[in-house]
Amino acid sequence: MKLEKGIALFLSAAMFLTGCGFSSKRALVDPKDVTPMESYEFEKLTFDGLEETDFHTVLEAEDGSHGSGVNIKSDKKDSSGGKYADISDNNGFKLTVDIPSDQFYKITVRHCAGSHKENEILFNGAKVMTVYSEEGDWVETEADGVFLKKGKNTITLGSGWSWFAIDKIEIENGESIDDSLYTGMSETLSNKYANLKTQNIYQYLRAIYGKRTLAGQCTDYGNNTETDALYKGLGKYPAVRTFDFIFDSPSYPYKNDRPAKDYDLAIEWSKMGGLVVYDWHWHAPCKEPDFYSEKTSFKLSKAVTKQDVAHMKVKELRDLYQSGKISEETYKTVSDIDVIAKYLQKLEDNYVTVLFRPLHEASGGWFWWGASGPDAYKWLWRTMYQRLTDYHKLDNLIWVWNAQDEDWYPGDEYCDIAAIDIYGAAHDYGVSPSTFADMSTWTDKEKMITMSECATMPDPDLIVRDNAYWLWFAVWNWDYIVKNGTTELSDAYTELDMMKKVYDSEVIITLDELPEF
After folding, report:
1. Which of 47, 73, 168, 406 has the most crowded Cβ, counting Cβ within 10 A?
2. Both 81 and 145 in a single domain?
3. Catalytic residue at 51?
4. What is the pLDDT along the chain (517 residues), one digit of tens a residue?
5. What is the pTM of this model?
6. Which of residues 173, 204, 237 is at a domain's end?
7. How many CA atoms lie less than 13 Å away from 392 in the CB half-sphere?
8. Do 100 and 221 share a domain, yes or no?
9. What is the DSSP code string of 235-285?
10. Cα–Cα distance measured from residue 244 to residue 340, given in angstroms and rounded to the nearest whole number
11. Do 123 and 219 belong to one domain?
């Protein structure tokens, strides 16, 4: 028994050292061992309720039945019809249009603003697009593949910043998302050394893409509140669960109050057969420890360096820092990544594949990793990728990029899946097909696209109708899904009947339907 135990300990230590990057070589997985995507068969579901009617109309913004928050002006000589609607309160804007048939349309909005503004366009209370206005002349934003129903349609504005102008809204025949958007996906992961389970999961994702959508749920840190509530209320678990390294940053000041423990739950979730997504609300490596840019003086721009810090040993980094050749920001940024690498290694040692989604929502600027602009962000993303993949030799990661803007894309060799976060109004179950189609152009090569955060579950009927098969959706946690932290489902955002419809739908894959990887 002692001999057997000693051999087991030796093998365990050898595996640990190999996984932690101490080995000089990494073995490539034999392609013959990877389950090919063709082994998973899913029938494409289609929508057959379309009508075909030629239609084209231009709605002048000044012609609506507007409230006090809309002023009709004529001081812009190039405005259509000589007038436009100047909007200070979104609740005051309203247009109506008679639609001749149930079909897909293209909607074009001509707008402008005095500075950056973001505003939602709604048809019958459901968001169909977001217009982004910058300081300057009129610009046009298009949304194709918008399904409108026959009869009177009311156009209003949803949440946004107001203080912008609309000149006109054009509606004409459009086209739904073409199936070609689901072909040509990258056949392999960006990391050629990815382990067998990770490659099997990726091939499964490729197989379902364009045919099914995975149910996902973001969860409170360190507990099972949301997933327990879903199982209690619906009898099923989501296929995808999102965890977070929020309390694992070395600078996090309250470790005794909220000890890091998500990775234990992630291991258990993986053993149950679920797919693991990991975010990182990264407390700034130095200065004030917060992830919101307005709450820390940490500047990512001060960390950017031409030194190849991603591949340096810890001692080399420390020597450069102590000699003043790299900044404190650089040194502690890489040091923080090294700490997270230990948790990711623990997950790999426990056979957990991680759909890794760091540095999310960067283009918004509210997180410090986005506050210094796209160039600094791309430096950080590439540095993190190389540090974890090349230096630490982590082979259990599928990289999910979620900066929310194509100008922030770090490159195909550093990304496997593209993601966006969409927060619509409560009880709006639309699937944002125009956003889906637009995102397909953001990457150089075709990448699968996912809705990594959302307020409501998407209606599976609309996924089929609009041909917008997000790889997965993940409803945000807390009151977006449960009542006051209990394990009781809340209908504040998604009504209970819709939850049941989603989790029982043939379109949606839940945990019990996942294969063994």
Report:
1. 168
2. yes
3. no
4. 333 333 333 333 333 333 343 334 588 999 999 999 999 989 999 888 888 899 999 999 999 999 999 999 999 989 999 999 999 999 999 999 999 999 999 999 999 999 989 999 999 998 899 999 989 999 999 999 999 999 999 999 998 889 999 999 999 999 999 999 999 999 999 999 999 999 999 999 999 999 999 999 999 999 999 999 999 999 999 999 999 999 999 999 887 766 667 989 999 999 999 999 999 999 999 999 999 999 999 999 999 999 999 999 999 999 999 999 999 999 999 999 999 999 999 999 999 999 999 999 999 999 999 999 999 999 999 999 999 999 999 999 999 999 999 999 999 999 999 999 999 889 999 999 989 999 999 998 889 999 999 999 999 999 999 999 999 999 999 999 999 879 999 999 999 999 999 999 999 999 999 999 9
5. 0.91
6. 173
7. 27
8. no
9. S--BSEEEEE-TTTSTT-TTTTTS---HHHHHHHHHHTT-EEEEE-----S
10. 11
11. no
Q: Is residue 378 part of a domain?
A: yes
Q: Are residues 201 and 153 in the same domain?
A: no
Total residue count of the chain as it appears in this document: 517
Choosing from 135, 453, 488, 516, the catalytic residue is: 453
Which is the catalytic residue, given 361, 406, 413, 516? 361
Same structural domain, 264 and 410: yes
- Last residue of one domain, picked from the residues 130, 145, 173: 173
User: Does 160 share its domain with 268?
Assistant: no
Same domain, residue pair 199 and 142: no
Beta bridge partners of 398: 355
Active site residue 361: yes
Q: Residue 403 is part of a domain; what is its CATH number?
A: 3.20.20.80
How many domains, in total, are found in the chain? 2
With CA atoms as reference, report the closest residue to 450 among 483, 407, 417, 497.
417
Domain coverage including residue 215: 181-513
Token pair, residue 65, equals 């039945």
Per the structure block, which two tokens stand in for 410?
């770090």
* CB-CB contact of 4 with 171 (8 Å): no
Q: Is residue 447 part of a domain?
A: yes
What is the phi/psi pair of residue 76, to 5°? -105, 115
Find the CATH number of the domain harbouring 89: 2.60.120.260
